[in-house]
Specification:
By secondary structure, this protein is α/β, with parallel strands linked by helices. It has a four-stranded parallel β-sheet, sandwiched between helices. It has a four-stranded mixed β-sheet with strand order 5-6-7-8. Helix 1 runs parallel beside helix 9 and helix 9 packs antiparallel against helix 15.
Amino acid sequence: DIEREMLLVGATAIEDKLQDCVGETISELMRAGIRVWVLTGDKIETAINIGFSCKLLNENQERLIIEGSNLEEVRNALVKAAQRQEEVRREKREMAMVISGEALIHAMKDSAVASFIVDIGENCKAVVACRVSPKQKQEVVTLVREQRPEMITLAIGDGANDVNMIIAAHVGVGIKGVEGQQAARAADYSFGEFKHLRRLVLLHGRESYRRNTELILYNFYKNMLLVLPQFWFGFINGFSAQVIYDQFVFQFFNVFYASLPIVLFAVLDEEAPPEILLHDVKAYEVGQRDKLFNLTRYWQQLGIGGLQAIGVAFFGFYGMEMNFAYQNGEVTHYWISGLVAFTACVLIANLKIFLFTNSFNVVSVSAILLSVVVYFFTIYIFNLVEELDLKGFFTEMALSPMFYVATLLLIGATTFIDLGFTRWGYFDDKMELAERVSAEPVSYTHLTLPTIYSV
């Protein structure tokens, strides 16, 4: 009633269209087993058309439409959708759920009905929520996180109305576009085009998960390897509280001798070329199925470290102090036995990184060698300091042939334990990846190499 007898002089608008490769990106993410939920402010008919244009929906899918003007209607619509879902599942067809914003408003009032939405949506290939407000976008993300705490949510948006949703998700991604920078500033990651999401998730996300998994498990392992020999040595010394290591070198272990190689591994290692990981979406399943980070692998690494610690403690002691190490019949000093055990820990810990490294380069190999060189350099310096317990013992150890024999045997035996527990599964995974790649050759021409900006 207010806008009467007005003359339209002109109008401005922002073109709202899909970016390049949106459909291909969503298709690849869905092929990798990722469930895609689209939360939009458009009406149902428009949202369905957008779903078809971005390859989220297709004609072969059964669309479950959820609408209702009150809670009872929404509940009945969900019950019918669940019944239809069972029928479609027996027919082995894909399903997609389309729900209106009004239905969401009523559903959120009842936790049981809201949970029902998640149950149905979990069994659908795609979910489209229409006419939703910024607050409702946040509520949907929060609902999924609460109902399925084991799942990881990622929210991506390009406008200020997506900020709440981006903040509510585990991982927030903002697209810097014509609708401003609010989403980009609130996100964990930001880039210019939607198609870069494919590389962020299938490559960087997958590789970050793998590398951080190895980093965490390795830190548990190496500390078991270092600390447990002192426990086992208690059975030898009658639990007299005598330590087996010199305290100076012991404090340097996690600072200088076994730190840099694993950090560089977590930054630089690549299991396969990026083109292969982007093409072979099955490789993304290692994170979805918790193949790399689980209780089995955790206890496995603790067990390996524990077994190797037994060898380090007893072999180091009985191999040196309890045997004649010199031609004149004299046995070696107590500190030399401890130094042999500690030397074995340093060498084994650095050698293990070679076992699970996939891509070797000058930096990673140099870091491992540098850690070993730094170790021998520091104990040589301690060997020269009059006030330290290790005074003169490095020279004595280096002149003992038994030191070299004991160290080589100890490293060989403990490494064989590690290989026996972990390496067979590693080779099986490599062969499976190679078979998938050879069966479906990679096309390198269509792959983009965007830069991901972290904010």
